[in-house]
Automatic annotation (TrEMBL):
GO terms for molecular function: thiamine diphosphokinase activity. It comes from the Bacteria. This is Thiamine diphosphokinase. Keywords: ATP-binding, Kinase, Nucleotide-binding, Transferase. Its EC number is 2.7.6.2. It comes from Bifidobacterium saguini.
Amino acid sequence: MTKVCVIFGAGEYYGSPDASLIPSDAYIVAADGGLDHTRALGIAPDVVVGDFDSLEGARPSADTSTRTVVLPPLKDDPDMLSALKIGWTAGCREFRIWGGLGGRVDHTLSNIQLMALLAQHGASGYLFGDGTVVTAICDGKLEFAAHPVPEAGRMVSVFSLSDVSLDVNEPGLKYELEHGTLTNTVVQGVSNEFRDNVRAAISVEKGTLIVTFPAEVALPSVNRNHDFSGSIGELDTEVSALLVR
């Protein structure tokens, strides 16, 4: 069974996280200002990481059992990527993230790109916010269980993060794309819908897709077309070498 890492970031929360999506044995990481949220929720993180520029409360104390990783402000990796790397090193390959959407649009875009980074290394990441989940799939398939759909419907959208995504299929959705080709400048996959009590899937033979779906829908099962190798990189705690001194 895949070990789950739950990350609390400093972005918008849109209410309290769904407790059922936080397994009792999850590896918990608070990314910078995400520590404010874990404190408010009464959740004790396993690790706190960041340069603490977005933390409103007290900095973590050295006399607790929580591991604290202090990053320099002038760094290459954003706090969220550092949190993902910590979870990856702990053996996690599924990441559920709150506080990664909303707020600054550049942070939102960055975090969506990080979902693609995970997918391209055989892991799964889910960003929760404002009634929506954002994930990515690379060379594989997301399968959604049949579920009741409100009369008004809720949107599921598919975008190609790759320059080109080949053999894209969306069986079970209202608009059933078959063997389609999507590019990162084509928005053909936006505003699709689940069908009432019908199983659905979103697959891509070659390429990386960003998928958004309603938060009330159960997380999909993930099947990949091949094995993935490599890691998302080592934790970087140094000042950026790109700075001009």
